[in-house]
Specification:
single chain; alpha+beta; eleven-stranded antiparallel beta sheet; 2 helices; globular
Length: 206
């Protein structure tokens, strides 16, 4: 089964369950722009990662669990080359991040000067104007040397973003504002992170 179809099936029931909540959020947000969108304080997002020619990363499906109130952001990366060999990028407001390969019990702790992105992290972005992305009318914003961000002009749903350094864009296939991480323990680094087991190859492929 195609990776994308697998994820759509996996998340289909959740999408139906959350549709009423999503419509409520949209009605509260109104039309997007001209100011950059502000993220909901909690959401689940599934995207396809599509690299440029020459990028060091490959095709993958990513699942993001963002929770500003818990001070955590987890990105699960499922590479097309081996969907079972996923990489977890766990970012915490403690200024610590962890690159985790669960199937290998490998973990690399990192420290950064800031915590997770704030819901209004796009506040000082530069407008890129109106575009059409994957059939959606979108407004775009950019942060130099970091990201181009495109949101639906009517709902502010993220449709695509492009990381400059990674040279890859991420197209949204599932968006659920308000939907929490399925297991709250995922926001805590596993015990083997304290043991210093590092899989350099897996991290390099991130």
């Amino acid at each position: 089964m195609c990776v994308t179809n697998w994820f759509i099936t996996e998340w289909g029931l959740r999408a139906l369950f959350m549709s009423a909540i999503a419509l409520l959020v949209v009605s509260q947000l109104g039309v997007c722009g001209p100011a950059p969108p502000v993220w909901p304080r909690r959401f689940t997002l599934v995207q396809r990662r599509i690299p440029d020619v020459g990028s060091k990363v490959g095709l993958a499906t990513t699942v993001t669990y963002y929770d500003a109130d818990r001070g955590a952001n987890l990105i699960q990366i499922f590479p097309d080359s081996n969907i079972s060999d996923e990489l977890w990028d766990l970012e915490l407001d403690s200024h610590k991040s962890y690159y985790i390969t669960p199937s290998r019990h490998s973990c690399r702790p990192m420290e950064f000067p800031v915590g997770i992105l704030r819901p209004n992290w796009l506040a000082n972005a530069t407008a890129l104007g109106l575009h059409v992305v994957n059939g959606h009318k979108v407004l775009g914003w950019t942060k130099v040397d970091f990201i181009d961000y495109f949101a639906d002009i009517e709902t502010c749903q993220p449709i695509r973003w492009y990381f400059h350094a990674m040279k890859a864009h991420f197209d949204t296939i599932y968006w659920a504002p308000g939907l929490a991480v399925p297991n709250s323990s995922w926001f805590a680094p596993p015990t083997y992170c304290r043991e210093g087991r590092v899989d350099e190859q897996a991290i390099a492929m991130k």
